[in-house]
Amino acid sequence: MSNPQSLTDEERGRFSWQIMMSGFGEDSQHKLKQSSALVSRVGGLGSPVALYLAMAGIGKLVIAHGGVPELGHMNRWIMSPYEGVDKISPVDSVIAHIRKLNPTIELVGVKESVTEENAAELVSQADIIMDCPPYFEERHLLNREAIRQNKPMVEAAVCGAEGYLTVIAPGETPCMSCLGFQSKDWELPFPVIGAVPGVIGSMAAMEAVKVLTGYGEPLKNRLVMYNGETAEFQTIKLKRRSDCEVCKPVVVYQ
Amino acid sequence: MIKVKFSSNGKLREALNGDIEVAVEATALTLHEAIRIVGDRLQGEQRTLLLDDEKETIQEHILLAVNDEMVTDNESLQDGDHIRVLMPMAGG
Ligand SMILES: [Zn+2]
């Protein structure tokens, strides 16, 4: 009888090119198989996040996204087909696409975006939170809930040719509120070229792999900023705000 | 004379046409003062990206860094420092 906790021969073959990476190996692959991620919205940013986590061999993805794609999303929603504009939920499109790439992953689709009502339940279903919605309000809801449930969150965002990301680890790093990430002027549509969320989403997926497996050094207490116009990256060292009303004190969810 | 470099992103970077240099005839300069000097170069909506004239403060929701370390606006600056202002974004 096969042990569901261990890798199958098929998985050893499928993931052999990453298992052979120095410092990764079967142990990391096994941890990834036992892990789960919530991807909040699978638009320009969440699509590459979900895609690369699935292809890396994560055990379970919870995909939450309300609504349907609009024509203007078609420069970056890489898993939503053109014929689905105004019709097909991106949750259905992403699940169908990922299923063809990774037949063994557990996929949970939720055709709602994050709200006050569902945030706790959505966060409770995953080991790591991938924060990819286009609204500060949804991002702060997830930040608050991830802190409350003591779960790591990869915070990633884009605008124009720019994007940034950081890993939020409750009790270890600043949270979104510490960083002051908010804007009363933010509105949709925002300018963006699809390759930029492609870059940042791929980096966000890599950060999740690192946090979940222990491989490498996750982007904690640092923020990476990408400027696609100049092809430059900057790294800023971050610090917690001692008076942050969200992350101090950390209350561990029971 | 204290000279510092000022970098930003997004609409603020567009308004300032990229990186700029701030030079002040003084022996001491805080980050707050340097940002006020940059803000005074801007008008209208562009100015409000950086300054809140009602509260007479720097806009609350921007991340400030000096020499690539996050700081608060009372940070003292040295000649040659590099200020970086990060405007938040939420695009997905
Ligand atoms: Zn905080």
Would you kindly provide a written description of the structure presented here, covering whatever features stand out?
The complex is a heterodimer of chains A (254) and B (92). With 254 residues, chain A is of the alpha/beta class. Chain A has a single domain (22-237), classed as Rossmann fold. Helix content of chain A is 31%, strand content 18%. Chain A has helices at 9-14, 16-19, 25-33, 46-56, 90-101, 119-124, 136-148, 195-213; strands spanning 36-40, 60-64, 106-110, 128-131, 153-159, 162-168, 222-227, 232-237. Chain A has an 8-stranded mixed sheet with strand order 3-2-1-4-5-6-7-8, sandwiched between helices. In chain A, helix 7 links the parallel strand 4 (128-131) and strand 5 (153-159). In chain A, helix 4 packs across helix 8 (195-213). The longest helix of chain A is centred in the last third of the chain and has 19 residues, at 195-213. Chain A starts with 8 loop residues before the first helix and ends in a 17-residue tail after the last strand. Chain B has one domain: Beta-grasp domain (Ubiquitin-like (UB roll)), CATH 3.10.20. Chain B is globular and about 40 Å long. Chain B has helices at 10-16, 31-39, 44-48; strands at residues 2-8, 20-24, 29-30, 51-52, 57-58, 63-66, 69-70, 76-77, 82-86. Chain B has 92 residues and is an alpha+beta fold. In chain B, 23% of the residues lie in helices and 34% in strands. The A-B interface holds A 41, 43-46, 132-136, 139, 157-160, 162-164, 174, 179-183, 186, 190, 192, 197, 223, 225, 227, 234-239 and B 9-10, 60-63, 65, 68-70, 84, 86-92. Bound molecules: zinc ion. Residues 174-175, 177-178, 241, 244, 246-247 of chain A line the site of zinc ion.
Secondary-structure element order of chain A, as H and E? Answer: HHHEHEHEHEHEEHEE
Q: Rg of chain B, please?
A: 12 Å
Gross morphology of chain B is: globular
Q: What portion of the residues of chain B fall into strands of 2 or more residues?
A: 25-35%
Instruction: Identify the strand order in the major beta sheet of chain A.
Output: 3-2-1-4-5-6-7-8
The CATH superfamily of chain A is identified as NAD(P)-binding Rossmann-like Domain
- Give the CATH topology of chain B: Ubiquitin-like (UB roll)
Structural class of chain B comes to alpha+beta
Between the first and last Cα atoms of chain B, what is the distance in angstroms? 43 Å
**CATH architecture identity of chain B:** Roll
Low-confidence stretches of chain A: none
Strand order of the largest sheet of chain B: 2-1-9-6-7
How many domain modules of chain A? Answer: 1
